[in-house]
Every structure is written in structure tokens, then in C-alpha cells.
């Protein structure tokens, strides 16, 4: 036997464990930021007019499949009306931005505008891309 075989191991090598934690932290950061981006749509072209919005504003998105989102949360027309009504009870005047994909059928946009009219929401903006 060698004299080196009798040596006891008093310290633990934590480098692989730290590497694992850093990889998990990196994955967590990437997944968190990926979920915040919102719903991707292809906006139509528009002018350089000032935009509505702000911290109290709401965003209604209609994607090219005709699905409806209120601040990135999928909703139906009835749910949209209920949630906007609840928000209007808390904040009487707030802007709403309607973001419709250029391939969206016009009827869905009209249904959303009808809901906004029934709730007497007057600050309505239609999101577009700026001219290039």
C-alpha cells in the first residue's frame, strides 16, 4: 500500500454543484423574461401620432387566428367585457389600446370596439407600426 491511500478527505469539492446552480439560475432568468414579452402580432402601418397607454391603460390584442388577449391573458368576448367592467369600477377613466394583427378579420375588431362602446370607454387607440 502507498502512503497516499491512507489520506482522509476532509474537504468537499463544491465546484460541480456551483456550476449546476448557475445553469439553473440562467435557465430561470431566460424562461422568466421569455414569458413577459407578450403576444407577437404583425401590426399594420400608421402615422406618427402620439400613442395612448401608461400604467393604468389596458391592451387588447387580436392575433391572426382571431384569438383575443387582455394584457397577454387569453379571454373571450364575455370575459373581456367582465374584466374591463371590473377595471372601470376601480379606475373610471383609462386608455385602451387595441392591437390587431393585419391578417385579423375585421369582425373581431368590431366586436371588441362594440364592447368598449357598451362600457363607455372613450380613450381608445388602435396600435400600428410607424412609417418606414
Description:
The chain is of the alpha/beta class. The protein folds into 2 domains: about 5-35; about 60-125, Nucleotidyltransferase, domain 5, CATH 3.30.420.270. About 35% of the residues lie in helices and about 15% in strands. The protein has helices at about 15-35, 75-90, 105-120; strands spanning about 60, 70, 75, 95-100, 125. The protein has a 5-stranded mixed beta sheet. Strand 4, helix 3 (about 105-120) and strand 5 (about 125) form a beta-alpha-beta unit. The model has no long low-confidence stretch (mean pLDDT about 80).
SSE blueprint:
Elements: H1 15-34, E1 58-62, E2 68-70, E3 73-75, H2 77-90, E4 96-100, H3 106-118, E5 124-126
Parallel strand pairs: 1-4, 4-5
Antiparallel strand pairs: 1-2, 2-3
Mean pLDDT: 78
CATH topology of the largest domain: Nucleotidyltransferase, domain 5
Return the domain count: 2
Gross morphology: elongated
Provide keyphrases for this structure.
132 residues; alpha/beta; Nucleotidyltransferase, domain 5; 2 domains; 5-stranded mixed β-sheet; 5 strands; elongated
Amino acid at each position: 500500500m502507498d502512503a497516499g491511500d491512507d489520506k482522509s478527505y476532509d474537504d468537499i469539492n463544491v465546484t460541480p454543484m456551483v456550476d449546476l446552480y448557475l445553469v439553473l439560475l440562467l435557465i430561470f432568468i431566460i424562461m422568466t423574461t421569455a414569458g413577459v414579452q407578450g403576444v407577437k402580432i404583425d401590426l399594420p402601418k400608421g402615422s406618427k401620432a402620439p400613442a395612448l397607454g401608461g400604467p393604468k391603460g389596458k391592451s387588447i390584442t387580436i392575433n391572426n387566428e382571431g384569438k383575443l388577449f387582455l394584457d397577454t391573458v387569453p379571454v373571450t368576448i364575455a370575459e373581456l367585457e367582465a374584466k374591463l367592467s371590473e377595471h372601470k369600477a376601480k379606475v373610471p377613466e383609462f386608455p385602451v389600446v387595441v392591437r390587431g394583427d393585419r391578417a385579423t378579420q375585421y369582425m373581431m375588431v368590431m366586436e371588441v370596439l362594440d364592447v368598449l362602446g357598451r362600457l363607455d370607454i372613450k380613450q381608445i387607440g388602435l396600435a400600428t407600426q410607424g412609417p418606414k
